[in-house]
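Contributing new records

If you add data, match the layout below exactly. Sequence lines come first and carry their own label; structure lines follow with theirs. Keep one chain per record. Anything else will be rejected by the validation script.
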Amino acid sequence: MRIGYFGGTINDGTIDQVVAEARDAEAAGFASYWVPQIFGHDALTALAIVGREVPRIELGTSVVPTFPRHPMALAQQCLTVNAATGGRLCLGIGLSHQMVIENMMGMSFDKPVRHMREYLDVLGPLSRGETVHTDGEVFSVHAAVDVKGSTPFPIVVAALGPQMLKLAAERADGTITWCTGPRTLADHTVPTITAAAEAAGRPAPRVVAALPVCVTGDIAAARARAADVFAIYGQLPSYRAMLDREGAEGPADIAVVGSADEVVERVGALADIGVTDFAAVSFPADADEAAATRAALARLLV
């Protein structure tokens, strides 16, 4: 299992600080550096800059919402990022949430599974440098994109329910999850996407799991902090469904907190259930907890 680092600086820091965070992750030996696309810097633009400064680590988005972006425009941007970074981009995409797309952006969130299916019918071929010919209800595209110096990029889909996991298996390279606990990963996510890939004659899918992590001597305080920092995710319907499936009251219940040995054991156990990549979302109370968390994760690096 590859161990990645989920950066938060893209939302609350400068571009220079994003570059520094990615450089630190690479120097520490992390396999990948993931950034969200929320309301801060544009993730793909930032990763293009990071990739020119930080030469080796994989660069991933977790995740770029699809509704506001035409798949051809997104493919062009990603191919450009890949040209700038030596082919190190892993594009994570997702639907976002109805309240974001409709209430904030004023767009329709109609038939999200159909939207993602047709989106991947366009984005998939373009990501491989192929010409697209597809006529759907949402997207009808007959075009190609030619970005000199680029290479194909993999796509992982933020898939939680069975229909989205099936799409990720059939039309993408895997899935990336958030706020999905180990029991749900083992009993639902991994077997569902794996079976769908096998049925479609596709390669074994990549399963990237992101969870909050903190090495601490004060577990109660860390859980209270997780409940506060990640509170919104317990209220969004898609994540709420995964927490309910896990039997978790909120995000604090699926946070990986404890001693260094406990964190190493719990993260390491994810490999046994089929998780291929772990993206650590560190939420320390202070510099000492941050250093202890990174040191613990370093024990899992191979």
